[in-house]
Amino acid sequence: MKPYHKYVGLDVHKERNEVAIAESSGEVRLYGSISNDLHALEKLVVKLRGEHVVLHFVYEAGPCGFVIQRRLQQLGEDCLVVAPSLIPRKSGDRVKTDRRDATMLARLHRAGELTGIHVPDPRDEAIRDLVRARTDAVTDRRDNRHRLKAFLLRHGYKYSGKSSWTPAHLRYLRELVLADPAHKVVLEEYLLAITQATERIERLETHLATLAATWRMKPVVDALQGLRGVQLLTAVALAAELGDLSRFRHPRQLMAFLGLVPSEYSSGGTRRQGSITKAGNAHARWFLVEAAQHYRLPPKVSKELAPRQENLPARLREISWKAQVRLHKKYWSMTMRGKRVQTIQVAVARELVGFVWATARQVLPTLPEPVKN
After folding, report:
1. Could you give the CA distance from residue 324 to residue 304 in angstroms, rounded to a whole number?
2. Is the pTM of this model over 0.85?
3. Which of 100, 98, 68 is CA-nearest to residue 81?
4. pLDDT (tens digit per residue) in 157-193
């Protein structure tokens, strides 16, 4: 007998999941609501299974992560995770409920209208979480620094040195004598928060370097460090956020994935382009824009870059040098045309993506460990 397909739409939430089923033909029907735990999911799979029945699950990516997809994969079932921004929606549809969402997912999956996202390997996701934890620590330190400087400025204290947060600046802050004891408490608490955030950043960076040494993406991380402006942290962040770049057939696809391509609204003979789309992975995009700033300097294999390139193949060193020459020329040609610095950095980051893609495809990560039941 031919296999009979059932398309199961899940609207996933913290406590409950709504379930809808679209069979090979006929209307989509609501199955009901189940608890958001793996035991309830396994019971659902057992009830829906049958002889010659093939199940196809689908749900939206969200705060509940990939636990459901991985468990269904362990059970031998097909599961698609889709990005909410890529789900087709009617412009006139103004009613949104959990049941309608589950029904819509099942119907669109049966019609083949949904595009799945890349589900990272559990180890890759763990490294990515570590990188993002380090970014959170940097954000906390920056916010506390801003709060402290705003507090002091509000009470008439302004540091006259050249640079902030240097040893001289920190010494100035610790030696400040404020008239009111309450203000002294505020100053000490802000300094303590900044110190703790700095120590947290250092701890996370140490753990990151240790764990990246045994990661399956280490060959890619080493190769990416051959590019100017890409040191260990940036290389690990790009590898963790982007995964295996062999799934992108062309660098333009990767540029679009990172949201670095200009938005466009064209009709007939009119073509209008706007700012970049900022779609896709914002964390990786931020690291790339930061790395692009290094290409304002003339091409050079510096004393910091030379050790990172020492054990790399000649082909990777050639890509790195070509990137320096091309991106430095682009940086200054746009500068001479009077472009804004932010526009220049984003444009250089967009072209840097092409060299990241070419570099990563020269080396292959080791295969992930098989999923265990």
Report:
1. 15
2. yes
3. 68
4. 999 888 999 999 999 999 998 989 999 999 999 999 9
